[in-house]
User: What shape does this take?
Amino acid sequence: QVQLVEAGGGLVQAGGSLRLSCAASGRIFTNNDMGWYRQTPGKEREFVAGITWIGGSTNYSDSVKGRFRISRDNAKNTVYLEMNSLKPEDTAIYYCTRLPRRDYWGQGTQVTVSS
Assistant: This one.
């Protein structure tokens, strides 16, 4: 069964931290780059961070660079997003997907940052 399950969202004050996780079925995770996206009402889903299967190279959107860190545990088929120095504008639903196809999505996890 093809599956992506995000977890770890919640309500946090500005300046705080959260760690998101995304558990994927092997069919999606193995041999694939993975990424995190986020979406707010009325806006398109935007890229946040990505990580390669080979070598674990990472890239980030300018808006989160230096504050967020993506990582993966290939033994657990899980990708993580560590979010630090959170800002109210980081409030969104966060999704993971495989790259570059972006053909499967989880249900997302809500992150709310209060000022």
Observations:
- Residues 26-29 form the longest helix (4 residues).
- DSSP finds one helix and ten strands in the chain.
- The chain has a mean pLDDT of 96.
